[in-house]
Amino acid sequence: MAGTVEAKLAELGLPLPAVVPPLASYQPAVQSGVYVYTSGQLPMVDGKLAVTGKVGAEVTPDEAKELAKTCALNALAAVKSVAGDLDRIARVVKVVGFVASAADFTGQPGVINGASELLGEVLGDKGVHARSAVGVAVLPLDAPVEVEIQVELTEA
Description:
Elements: H1 4-11, E1 29-32, E2 35-38, E3 44-45, E4 48-49, H2 61-83, E5 89-100, H3 108-123, E6 130-136, E7 145-153
C-alpha cells in the first residue's frame, strides 16, 4: 500500500515512475547513514527523453521547468528504491540542477524551480531545501535538464 507521499503524488495526477536504469556505471541512488544521494536524473519518461536540446534555443524555459519536475519525480523513485518508503523522508537537504543552456540563457533558477516546487508541493515543509542551479554546455543524451537530490531519512 502506498504511503502518504505517494498518495499526494497520485492526488496531483503524478504516479511515481519506475526507477530509470543507469546509462553507465553507477547506481540511481545510494544510502550512507541517514542520507540518500541520487545520481543525476534526466527527464526520462517510459525509457526515453521526450525533448532534447538547449534551453533558450530548442527548448523553452516553460518546457524545461516541466522537464525539471519530471527529473524530480525520477529522483523520488530512485530514493524509494533504496529507502523502501518515501514516507521515511525527514527532509530534502539539497537539490542540484543542471540546465543545458543556450549561450545567452540565464534563467536556470526558474527552470529548476520545477523540481523545487514539486518537492515542496508533495513533501510540504520537508521539501524545503538548499539548492544550486547551474548552466552547462551539454548534458547526457542531449537532455535539457538534469536534477539530483539529497534527502535525510527517518529511522526504518
